[in-house]
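Table 4 source record.
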Amino acid sequence: MGLSQALSTAMSGLRATQAAISLVGSNVANAETPGYVRKSIIQVAGMTGDYGSSVLLNGVDRQLDQYLQTQLRTETSGAAYADIRSTFLQNLQNVYGNPSETGTIEDSFNKLLTAFQGLSTSPDSQSARIGAVSAAQTMAQTLNAATQGIQNLRANAEMGINDSIVTANNAMAQIAFINNQLQNNGKTDAATASLLDQRDQYITQLSSLMDIRTVVNDLNQVTVFTNSGVQLVGTEAAQLTFNPQGTITPNTLYNPTDPTKSNVGTISINFPHGGSYDLVSTKSIRSGKIAAYLELRDNTLVKAQAQIDQFAASMASALSDKTTAGTAAPASVLPQAGYDLDLTGLQSGNVIHVSYKNNTTGVTHNLSILRVDDPSVLPLSNTTTLDPNDEVLGIDFSAGMASVVTQLNAALGTSANLQFSNPSGSTLRVLDDGATNRSDVLAASVTTTMSSLTSGNPQFALFTDNGGLFTGAITANGSQQTGLAGRISVNLGLLGDPSRAVILSTSPLTPAGDTTRSDFVLTQLQSGNYRYSPQTGIGTTGAPFTGTLTNFVKQFISQQGEAATAAKQLSEGQSVVLNTLQKKVTDASGVNIDDELAHLLALQNAYSANARVMSSIKQMYDTLIQAM
């Protein structure tokens, strides 16, 4: 190898060392920069003449473990999902309160029972009467406040989705922009490595919002998909849209059966070259903050509202609903037999119960005939009531009794061999088929909601639906029960005259010391057993939860406490996993100052050695020139 070749080799060594020193300086300077990946020079040997090898610079290498990075993004999604759920469930726990605290649902209910116990002890005491009505008002206000708290959480989730969509769109736009810069660059120099660092940060940010996977091509361009396979960004970014609702109420719900009927915001993706896709109805987002917000807004918090609505409805109906058995049909209808039912006071949502036996099959059928005043909701499902063993038939009462009889005979005349008629006024008669003996009517009754405080019955509407009767009506807007806890209030007649908590009749006047009504309230609220909707997350359609109101309250408050604890533990566990992975990534890809300084010393020695080679060659050249 000649002197010129040796000089060239030494100079290539100097250039390589200078570039490496520059990167060491960059590494040290960015040791605390978030998302910065340690970099090093890619060096390869190049031939120089017959006997030596020069040093060629082949780009900049990012010290990155792709497998760890993929794992980190997956756990980032999971940790973000768990953290949001834990935060919201802790807040929901605060709405419900702890059983030992005052002002909670359970505490208010216990105080209501105590107040009516005092009223039964001293029915003629004005202070006891006022105390009972006041306790009922506190109970209603507690449920109102719980509803407000739950709907505020749902509104926060809605806004959380909106903010996440804005962040996601910005991240996707930046990823697409950097992809295009990489396409135009086509190099693997320090500038390219810096772009890759920036892009990785945006991808990590996107992974905290939703579950994603990435594919990288030969030009270092990345294509990002959701784990369900929807492409979010490549060289062009898709656009996510969200239509947040200004006000969230218990009736503001997502409809999974028909998303077009939903009245909460939904997420759509608009692709760069046309076309769009609903990401909510297709369940395309399964983890990350957005998935957590959707789960909370549309499921968890809706169930929480359903729980307090069910409690309010059961409490109101337990006191206001009266079931009256039918009277045997007159002998004049023989050989048919059946019952006459007085439908006076039957309200929309009230139920007529008919039990009959099919003598051909030997099967006994329990019919629940619901009064409906909005025919658009018909037909009704058998799950409309909470009885898992009944058959539900909705009948439109808006056109009068003649129409009711016609509908009943059309629905049950042939299939059940029952005959309905209206002998007079508001009387509904149900008969079997007589001599042919294909059916027998076993029992019939009607449940109505009492509207008067002085009907002579212990049943009365202590609680109302914003001043009106709660009857369980079903309309095109949904069930009256939805959101009831936010509207429940004490009967205005009782607020004006608390004596009605004891006086159930004015003609004749309820005698002094009578505890019929207060005893009835205690019995219904303290020991009455009721079924509760599976929409509360407790029980199933086939086996609904059954128990006292106290049992139900304790059940859903306990369930919520357990859910909040489990969510917190999961979030803490996810944080541990995420932190462990972040440490592994930092160890593998981050900057270690001690290592960099040690590397710098080695580079200094290499630089000195290359400089020494060049100095020696210069001396040789000088000697050669002097000899000439």
